From TrEMBL:
Enoyl reductase (ER) domain sequence ranges: 19-340
UniProt cofactor(s): Zn(2+)
GO CC terms, sorted: cytoplasm
PANTHER family: ALCOHOL DEHYDROGENASE 1-RELATED, ALCOHOL DEHYDROGENASE-LIKE N-TERMINAL DOMAIN-CONTAINING PROTEIN
Protein name (Swiss-Prot/TrEMBL): Alcohol dehydrogenase
């Protein structure tokens, strides 16, 4: 044990079985294995995808498990065979927690699609804790301009919307629609505006109009009161529509609001199926999905956020508040991301 971690145990929030509850517990502080570092956690975002661990949506999970894949902290110990990283360095860690180097995807050099990938907070313990160990493959450096609390959600919600937008093919000046102003949407609006797109934000009700405009949207459509598809058609159509919510029935109809070569980019995780009219695809419109990115892409995204003033809106909670915060997030009541500060 070194100077940064004099104690032998740490507080964590873990799940002891699939479909179980989030429980506060004490665990021995883990030591880093070969190719790993130990991180003293400064912040960890709470994300809808943590339900994969809590509910056991992923095959073969071994419980108890500590969720959390939006981790920022300080390296406090190095395992054997680690180079390029040092004790005291501030790092981030997202969903991608390491690759196997042997599967077909790895042999193509496409490591984030690794068939045997380690997933932070899913296949190995994550950041709802005072410490965690991590393979160096997933580590991300963080610019000084971002504090740990604001950097944490960028490691998942940030990189997902940033890459989703880049992969949508929308060009400068073209219309990008952000459908849903929540944990992903409030970041997507900021990225799209800073990328030079004409951003139209869509949600239900009037209360998010001011926020959407202040984040960089040039217009806000209230889906309760406006026929958003015809209004977008009248505006020339959207080159890209980012569906950043979990309400499947409102996604399919948006296909008709695209330009003939536009892309409907699904970034949320609705459980229901999408209804798509095949005729609308014949012109070259497409429906795609995207999630996460490489550690290098996350690093570039972090620098973009620092340079162009992109920040998540967060509420900070301690480890003891996690079960309550998680429930509020699942009910859609978070504004807009909960972030755990384990020192609280
Ligand atoms: Zn692999
Ligand atoms: Zn996430």
């Amino acid at each position: 044990m070194n100077m940064f971690s004099p104690k032998a145990t740490m507080r964590v929030v873990h799940v002891t079985q699939a479909g179980g509850t989030l429980e506060l517990s004490d665990r021995p502080i883990p030591g880093p294995g070969a190719g790993e570092v130990r991180i003293k956690v400064e912040a960890c975002g709470i994300c809808h995808s943590d339900s994969v661990t809590k509910e056991g949506y992923f095959p073969g999970l071994v419980y108890p498990l500590i969720p959390g894949h939006e981790v920022v902290g300080i390296i406090d110990a190095l395992g054997p065979d680690v180079s390029g990283w040092s004790v005291g360095q501030r790092v981030g860690l997202g969903w991608f927690g390491g690759h196997c180097s042997c599967c077909d995807w790895c042999r193509r050099g496409d490591f984030t699609r690794c068939s045997n990938a380690d997933i932070t907070g899913v296949t190995r313990d994550g950041g709802y804790a005072e410490f965690l160990t991590a393979s160096v493959e997933g580590l991300v450096t963080i610019p000084d301009a971002l504090n740990a609390i604001e950097a944490a959600p960028l490691l998942c919600a940030g990189i997902s919307t940033y890459n989703g937008l880049l992969r949508s093919g929308a060009g400068v000046g073209e219309i990008v629609v952000v459908q849903g102003i929540g944990g992903l949407g409030h970041l997507a609006i900021q990225f799209a505006a800073r990328f030079g797109h004409k951003v139209i934000a869509i949600d239900k009700g009037a209360e998010r109009r001011e926020l959407a405009l202040s984040l960089g949207a040039s217009a806000y459509y209230d889906a309760d009161r406006q026929d958003v598809v015809s209004e977008l058609q009248a505006a020339g159509g959207a080159k890209a529509i980012l569906a950043v919510h979990n309400h499947a029935p409102s996604i399919g109809p948006m296909l008709e609001a695209l330009t003939l070569d536009g892309t409907l980019m699904v970034l949320g995780v609705p459980e229901a199926s999408l209804e798509i009219v095949p005729r609308l695809l014949l012109s070259g419109r497409s429906v795609k999905g995207s999630s996460g990115g490489t550690s290098m892409e996350a690093e570039q995204m972090m620098c973009f956020c620092a340079d162009h003033d992109v920040r998540p809106i967060v509420e900070v909670v301690g480890l003891g508040d996690v079960p309550h915060a998680y429930e509020r997030m699942e009910r859609g009541e978070a504004r807009f991301r909960y972030v755990i500060d384990p020192s609280r």
